[in-house]
Amino acid sequence: xxxxxxxxxxxxASALFWIVFPWFxxxxxxxxxxxxxQLSQHIAIMACAALLHGFYWSRLRWVPVVAPFQxxxxxxxxxxxxxxxxFFGGALFSTLFFRHLPELDALPSFGRxxxxxxxxxxxxxxxxCYSQDLERxxxxxxxxxxx
Length: 147
Prior knowledge:
This protein is an all-alpha fold. The protein is built from 4 helices and no strands. The protein has helices at residues 2-29, 39-62, 72-100, 110-142.
């Protein structure tokens, strides 16, 4: 069950990266131009974040982290992937913030601002939860059996 929930989280995080990365690249390569996500992309992003949260909180509540074996190299790879997944979220947030910083002289409506902030925080927190699960797996893989 743990492997299925972690695979679900990994699939949701991968889909999130697949959706956001082309937009992220466009923002970076065309600085100064306005780039909007389509409504379908916003919905897909929130669906991926909801799946990430669903798999994570289900795993945390009902399924303990138990490594089927100990392997230091695999533990290090899980720990590395944990940090990489969250770095991407941080880079996305930084890009969004600095991209829209010049527009702060004309603030968006409160509703648009609140919705955008909710979306960003939800995605960042989902990626944080995923990275936490990978860290827990890394620790379980690295633990030495008790004698």
